[in-house]
Design a protein that fits this description.
Low-confidence stretches: none
Number of strands: 15
Mean pLDDT: 97
Distance between the termini: 50 Å
Largest sheet: 7 strands, mixed
Strand content: 15-25%
CATH superfamily of the largest domain: Aldehyde Dehydrogenase, Chain A, domain 1
Strand order of the largest sheet: 10-11-12-9-8-13-14
Shape: globular
CATH topology of the largest domain: Aldehyde Dehydrogenase, Chain A, domain 1
CATH architecture of the largest domain: 3-Layer(aba) Sandwich
Number of helices: 14
Radius of gyration: 24 Å
Helix content: 25-40%
C-alpha cells in the first residue's frame, strides 16, 4: 500500500508531463486528458479504501449438519496479470489496472499500445520510482505480436480493452484463466418526445464528438421521437456547426483510421443516408475529420451495425420510444446507452428494457470512478457483479473440522 501512496504523489508531481505525453501521442484535447487524469487521482484513494475491506469471511455453517466446523473464505492475488494497453486512454486505462492489481498483491506484465509507447514507458518509470520492483512490474514494448504472446503465456489473468475481434481472439487463445474484457460498443441514445431539447443537444453533441469520437462508450446512434424531430434535428445540426474539429474534437489516431471513417460515411450515403453536417476529411496537417451527422431511415448500414471510431453519428426518426428501444437493442454490442426525458419514471422504465451494461439518463459518457462496473453485455465484454479491485483476487475456502472425534458418516 505504501508504494501505491508514493505512486499517487509521483503522478501528482508529473501531471503536466503525463498530460503532454498523452496529448502528443494521441492528439486529444487537453481538457479530455485532464478529466481522466483527475479520475485516476481520485481512484488511488478509492482503491485504497476498497482494499481495506479485503479480509477473510467467516462462512456460516449449520451445526446440525456439520457440527464442530469452521469455514473461512480467503482472498488471494491471482499472481501475474497480463495487461494489454490501449491508445485512446493510455494513462487512465492502464492505471485502473495498475492500482488495484498491485494493491492486491499481483505482479503485472504490461504491453502499452504501440501508438502510446512513450506514455507506457512513463507509467513504467513512475511505478518503479514508487518502489515496485522491476520483476513485479514488467513492461514489454512492441506490436500486436507481443500482446498475442502474453495471452498465450502462463500469466494468471488477462486485462484487455479494445475491439470485439481481438477480444474473441483472446478468448480463443488464453486458455482457462480469468479475463477482464471491455470490448467495442455501439451505444444508442434515445431522444424522447418530452426531452429538454437544449440540454439534450448539448449532451449528445459532447457525447458524440468528444475525444475525436474515439471512445468505446461514445454515442454512435441517435433515435429521436418523430413528434420532436422537426425541432430537434435542425437545432442539433446548427449547434454542432459551432464545434471546432481541431480544438474541441481532435484528430483520429492515424490515416488508416480516418480513411475507414470516410469509407463508412460514403457507404452510408451510397445506401441512402443524407449528410446534414460534415462528411469530409479536413485538409492540412493531422488526421482530422469533420464532425459528421447523417440522417438515415434504415439500420442495415455499417455505420449502425458496427462500431465507428470517429466523429460520425447517424440520426433516425422513430415513431415512439418503443421502436427506439427495439432498434437500440438490435445489435451484437451491449456496452452503454443514453436516454433523454424529463419523466423520471419513463427514463427508469426504458433503462430496464435496454440490453446494455450502463445506461445514462440525461447525461452521457460519464462512467463511475475509474470505470467501476463499466462492463458490457453481449459481445461487448464479460459481465461481472464484482467491483474492479475484487477481480484481481481469487477465493480460497478453508474448512476446518474442530473436533478430535471422527465424523459420524466417515467409514469405520
Amino acid at each position: 500500500m505504501e508504494a501505491i501512496k508514493r505512486l499517487k504523489k509521483i503522478c501528482e508531481r508529473e501531471k503536466n508531463v503525463i498530460i503532454e505525453l498523452v496529448r502528443k501521442e494521441g492528439g486529444f484535447p487537453k481538457a479530455d486528458i485532464e478529466a481522466v487524469y483527475l479520475d485516476v487521482l481520485d481512484g488511488f484513494d478509492y482503491y485504497i479504501e476498497e482494499y481495506k475491506k479485503v479480509s477473510p469471511i467467516d462462512f456460516p455453517i449449520n451445526p446440525e449438519i456439520q457440527p464442530n466446523t469452521q469455514t473461512k473464505v480467503e482472498f488471494v492475488p491471482h499472481g501475474v496479470i497480463g495487461h494489454i494497453g490501449i491508445w485512446n486512454y493510455p494513462f487512465w486505462q492502464t492505471m485502473i489496472t495498475v492500482i488495484p492489481a498491485l494493491l492486491t498483491g499481483n505482479s503485472i506484465v504490461y504491453k502499452p499500445s504501440e501508438y502510446a509507447t512513450m506514455t507506457g514507458l512513463k507509467i513504467s518509470g513512475m511505478v518503479h520510482e514508487a518502489g515496485v520492483p522491476e520483476n513485479v512490474f514488467i513492461t514489454l514494448i512492441g506490436g500486436a505480436e507481443i500482446g498475442k504472446e502474453i495471452v498465450k503465456s502462463d500469466v494468471d489473468a488477462i486485462v484487455f480493452t479494445g475491439g470485439i475481434d481481438t477480444g474473441l481472439d483472446i478468448v480463443k487463445n488464453a486458455g482457462i484463466k480469468p479475463l477482464i474484457l471491455e470490448l467495442s460498443g455501439n451505444d444508442a441514445t434515445i431522444v424522447c418526445s418530452d426531452a429538454d431539447i437544449e440540454q439534450t443537444i448539448r449532451g449528445i453533441a459532447w457525447g458524440t464528438f468528444t475525444h475525436g469520437g474515439q471512445n468505446c462508450i461514445r454515442i454512435k446512434r441517435i433515435y429521436v421521437a418523430k413528434s420532436i424531430s422537426e425541432k430537434f434535428i435542425p437545432m442539433f445540426v446548427e449547434f454542432c456547426k459551432r464545434i471546432d474539429a481541431k480544438e474541441d474534437v481532435g484528430p483520429l489516431i492515424r490515416e488508416h483510421a480516418r480513411n475507414n471513417v470516410d469509407r463508412v460515411v460514403k457507404d452510408a450515403v451510397k445506401k441512402g443516408a443524407k449528410i446534414l453536417l460534415g462528411g469530409k476529411k479536413i485538409k492540412g496537417e493531422g488526421f482530422f475529420y469533420e464532425p459528421t451527422i447523417l440522417l438515415i431511415d434504415r439500420d442495415d448500414l455499417e455505420v449502425t451495425k458496427k462500431e465507428t471510431f470517429g466523429p460520425v453519428c447517424p440520426i433516425r426518426i422513430v415513431k415512439n420510444e418503443g421502436e427506439a428501444v427495439k432498434l437500440a437493442n438490435d445489435t451484437k454490442y451491449g456496452l452503454g446507452a443514453t436516454i433523454w426525458t424529463q419523466d423520471y419514471r419513463k427514463g427508469m422504465e426504458l433503462a430496464k428494457r435496454l440490453e446494455v451494461g450502463t445506461v445514462w439518463i440525461n447525461d452521457s459518457n460519464m462512467p463511475l470512478i475509474c470505470g467501476e462496473f463499466l462492463q458490457g453485455w453481449k459481445q461487448s465484454g464479460i459481465p461481472s457483479s464484482q467491483k474492479r479491485l475484487w477481480m484481481f483476487l481469487k477465493k480460497r475456502t478453508v474448512v476446518r473440522h474442530k473436533s478430535k472425534e471422527p465424523r459420524e458418516w466417515w467409514f469405520s
